[in-house]
Amino acid sequence: MHSARLLIGLGVTSLLCLSAATARAEVTLGDLRASNGVSPPRTDLFVDGDTLVLSASASSREGVLRVEAELEGATVELAAVGGGSYQGTFDISDVAPGRHDLTIRAYDRLGDASTVERTLHKHPPPILWLSSPRSQRVIAGNTPLDARCIATEPYECRVLCMNVRSATRSETVCRTRDASTRPGTLYLLARPSRAFAAGEVLTVTLTGDVGVGTEIQPSVVSPIYVETSPKLVAVQAAPGVILDFDATRILFIHEGYQIGIVDRATREVAWISAMLPDPAGSVPSYGALTPSGAVIQSATGRIFVWRDGVWRKIAHGRLDAVNGDRLVWTMNNDRWGYVHSIPEGTNSSIWNRPDSSSPFQADLSASGDVYWGTYDEPWIRHLGVRRLGSHPGNLQRPITDGTNVAGRWWDGDTSSSYLYTAEGEEVFLGDSISGNSAGLLLHAGYAGFLKSDGAVNQVWLRTPDGEQHQLSSFATSSLFDQQRLRVGHDGISDDGEVLFLNGGKRYIGRPGAEPEEISSDLGHGRWFDGSFHVTLGDTLFRVASKGGAAAGFAARSEALRDDLAEVDGLQRFVSMPMDLEAEAPALALHHLEPDALPSLSDEEPSADLAGDELGEDLPAGVGCSAAGAAGSRGGAAAFAAALAGLALARRGRRRSAG
Fold it and tell me: Signal peptide position in this chain (predicted)?
């Protein structure tokens, strides 16, 4: 009997449980591990050698009659070994390297059966890996890209190709193994033939050839952001896309749809929970930090709250506004609106119009005042206090900074903006040619607003003493740098500087001065703690404006280049442009004003206020850990575990050879 080395198994936290709808037998497939104990969170099984030892556990209320497994037409009955566990052995010496279907069936004493199907790889399949940069990273336009094809016997990476695409061009480079190439991993370090421009978004696709009649799945890494501004200083990075930040924390979502929070002082990561993937074409999931935790809007129409270590779904609906430990949300049909208290876990109804087809839009002040509006009424409602304004057209989202309140009424051609002061005065700010609520900013008594010059929208500022200043004079329309859950709140400094976008660039406008160019329009800009900041992908930047310098991107690129040069076996190549028409279009992001109402997936119908597909009141970390999430797409954790398996395989072969 050949010795078996089962390289990658399934951990206790990743057990798979399937049962037929009419069956009483229930199969839980687990304990698929060898002596090395490698156990990444993925469903495929890997074996290196000529013997497969398969373990499973099975249970049934009627009693388990037998458990069997089938591989390549051969069936083996798994013997009971106690404690509900079963084990069997396959001789796979005649099974070809590659992917194979494995089926496990359990039968109860009434003849009902349950089946689990898995994919078995004889020898770990090759891996195509973009070592650097990773998805959601921010790079300079000429940063080298480090790609690798990793394989173990009997596979050998023969060819590795890398295609880099932006909205403007595509470049491809390949490396072919020859007699001078070192055995093992095939490396490819490539630099663009010319630098990509700031504001471009890159998609990198890796392909390869290993022979032995097997195919390697292409690896696609996207998005990668290009930014070169000397006025952006990298402050901190997160393990995923940054959703929100404050003085001590960063809220992010990992590519495996794991939600986490980084402690900015210690850099420790608290993994909160895993979510269902965003449906194709939906608005990505978003969220905000709260004093006691975080709140998340999933693209599948669920609202989650994390507080005191507990992850809980509070509703199927749309999260509309958050401030402190209170939030406003509405059912997906916008006919019911609620204020939710996170500490108390209660919902208070503030809007109930079953026959309405109007969107519901609201804002919250830090003191808890709620302002909202709908198309059914011509005024802004201040919950329990008063009504503000009465104008023709559809009322867009009202905005408050706790002192002033502002709103826009859209008549189909023009948005008319009005400000309501703490003294009760109504101030007409102006008309703009824009039909959504993202044309207003309020902070510290200042008001930023868009105003048409007859052809395009320009940026204006109203000061606390009532003065108005035009801040832009571009030939094309400007717009504010807005983000969901923060619409109207992020773009004004304590001194009345205004952040805005025009022509693919980000500017700061000041009364009596020309707008200062800060960066490309990628990401989101925000005033916080005495400075403007920009979040882009997984990185938080501070804006060093008014001539301030950032050591920034050139130095970071050089450091990356130095690190790569130390990697054994790397060789440098320069890629050549290729025909754009021969490739599918690359990912292109267009920075537009966010709609007042996010388009959430309609996969799930509206439901009750309570309930959670993962269970009520789950403790933090259920379904996830620092190593990965159950049900995630694998991501870095799966790759790390696969690398561990490959390393163990090599060490095992060296020991056997010795």
Answer: 1-25
**Six token digits for residue 210:** 């290993």
What would the pLDDT profile of 388-400 be if each residue is shown by its tens digit? 999 999 998 899 9
Burial 578-612 (b: 16+ CB within 10 A, else e): eeeeeeeebeeeebebbebbbebbeebeeeebeee
Determine the Cα angle at 536 with ends 637 and 307, to 5°. 65
Q: 83: pLDDT confidence band, cut at 50, 70 and 90?
A: confident
Assess whether 97 and 132 both reside in one domain.
no
- Separation CA 194–CA 510 (nearest Å): 35
The last residue of one of the domains, among 77, 92, 123, is 123
> Is 189 a domain residue?
yes
Phi, psi of 642 (to 5 degrees): -65, -40
d(CA 325, CA 321): 11
This prediction's pTM: 0.73
pLDDT interval class at 546 (50, 70, 90) = low
* Whether residues 110 and 135 fall in one domain: no
Q: Which of 430, 535, 531, 444 is nearest to 481 (CA)?
A: 535
- Give tens-digit pLDDT for 310-346: 999 999 999 999 999 999 999 888 889 999 999 999 9
Residue 652: name the closest of 212, 148, 49 by CA.
49
Rounded to whole angstroms, what are the CA distances from 630 to 42, 274, 432, 540, 556?
A: 8, 8, 49, 28, 34
- CATH of residue 577: 2.60.40.10
Task: Flag whether 182 is in a domain.
Answer: yes
Residue 68 exposure: Cα atoms within 13 Å on the Cβ side: 12
Residue 193 lies in a domain: yes
With residue 318 as reference, give the H or E element that holds it. Answer: strand 318-323
Containing structural domain, residue 142: 127-230+559-582
> How far is the CA of 389 from the CAs of 359, 395, 418, 584, in angstroms?
18, 10, 8, 50
- If one counts every other C-beta atom within 10 angstroms of the C-beta of residue 18, the result is 15
Phi, psi torsion values for 185, nearest 5 degrees: -60, 135
- What are 211's two structure tokens? 């022979």
